[in-house]
Give the backbone structure.
Amino acid sequence: MTEQAPISRLLAHTKNHRSTMWLATLFSILNKIFDLAPPLLIGAAVDVVVKREESVLSDFGYSDPKEQLIVLSVLTVIIWIFESLFEYIYGILWRNLAQTVQHELRLDAYSHIQNLEMEWFGEQSKGELMSILNDDINQLERFLDKGANEILQVSTTVVIIGAIFLYISPMIALYSIGAIPVIAVGSFMFQSRIAPRYSKVRKEVGLLNALLSNNLSGISTIKSFTTEELEVERVRKASQAYREANRDAIKLSAAFVPLIRMAILVGFTGTLLHGGLMTLDNEMAIASYSVMIFMMQRLLWPLTRLGETFDLYQRAMVSTTRVLNLLETEIRIEEGALSLDSSRVKGEINFENVSFSYPGRELVVDNFDFKIKPGTTQAIVGPTGSGKTTLIRLLLRFHVPKSGSIFLDGNEISKLNLKDLRSSISLVTQTITLFPGSVLQNIAYGSKNSTEADIVDAAKVAEIHNFIESLPEGYNTQIGEGGHKLSGGQRQRISIARAVLKDAPILVLDEATSSVDNETEEALQKSLDFISKDRTTIVIAHRLSTIRHSDSIIVLDSGKVVESGTHEELLKNNSQYFKLWNVQTGKR
């Protein structure tokens, strides 16, 4: 991973917005310049009242004190108008920039996540990813909205006031701006010590988010096992850990502002005392002394807010590091260059000596060698953990084999365009994913060019049309997040309709009828037999009655083919399939 500073990495990632950043910076500085002008006008007004015709303004051709005051009033109006205008402009620029960067980073991060291999997801926490996509990116947005401008304006204030003080009295300038290097060094020390604490805060909030997300998803299980108190205690511990991490960071960040104030106290007291003595000894004009006091006050307030600004900055940099680390995560599955026209795919699938294991586990698929003829229905059975679903995940390139190759119509799938490969396969799994929206939108998911008539036809094939028609708004009925308003069988049939509508040359059914009753299963089986014609179909099933008419059946055990053949041939073998069949049919 790159060793660049977070701010450098952020600037490199947002290089397309450099012009906006420079423009926002310019107007922030102009605003601060005009904001610091009123103390100079006050000093000029004091000079007019004290010296009258001999004031500084008389050197510009305004000898009458009343005329001088009118000139100062006009200047005041002009300065306030421009100050307000520049504040309005930089506000729009910085805030819109913050929203744009936030929007682009979130989309970039989410798009990058979608391109990562499934193995990576197995090592991640959903709550941690949600924390990065939401909390961390929002933290960066808050800094760009306020913190960046604060740093610019504080820097501008220090430079301008330092220059004015050096012009009036170099000695007093040492008192006033001498504390700045101390504050700067202290700020860098503060950043180095606070960064690890905020990293821990971000980690703890990720763990808390993961727990809350998991519990909300499994609320029915929690209620059924009456473990509400147990889960409240788990959330309490996670929240307490987050609270303690924040408390640890607060101890340090809260001490920063008082330390800054003590450093400023030295400068302010020195200016007040030494400048006052010089004025009493007529070594400094009253107007100049007034300007220095007012300017010192202008310097005091921004510097006291510097601690809060640095705190915001450090939080943003920790969050930026997490977001950019995610964006720089290497995509291990390489995109193939060979295009594939799904309409011309025959569906011949060939596994050649394929082996695969998940990280830290033994081989799930061990030297698997098998060929599926195009246009046939291939069933895969075997005990849990035998590698059935893993074969499908390898075919879809969710994972990469440790050894061996997989071919589709003679083309090695690693050389195929990923989108083309996956567009050629319709997948129906036991775990159904539906999205917030209408029934129609969920059936049409992934099929952009389908008509409403196509959607209805697909629903009829999946034996779900009559149920949809009975809903209050028919196909436009909202199904809720994850389809929670539907039964398991209804969700399953919608997912089957979605696969039917996709009309891919290869159909994969991974326990596709596991969530439906026997009557619906029989109706669905007829539909699946219908849609399986003229396409390659792979059926994974524990219920052997659903695959007895397949063209071929293979029995897996520990990632290896232990027997294969038709239903009748396997029964004659009097082996593992025969035993499974007898158990499911009630024979012993």
In short: The chain has a mean pLDDT of 82. The first strand starts at residue 349 and ends at 357.
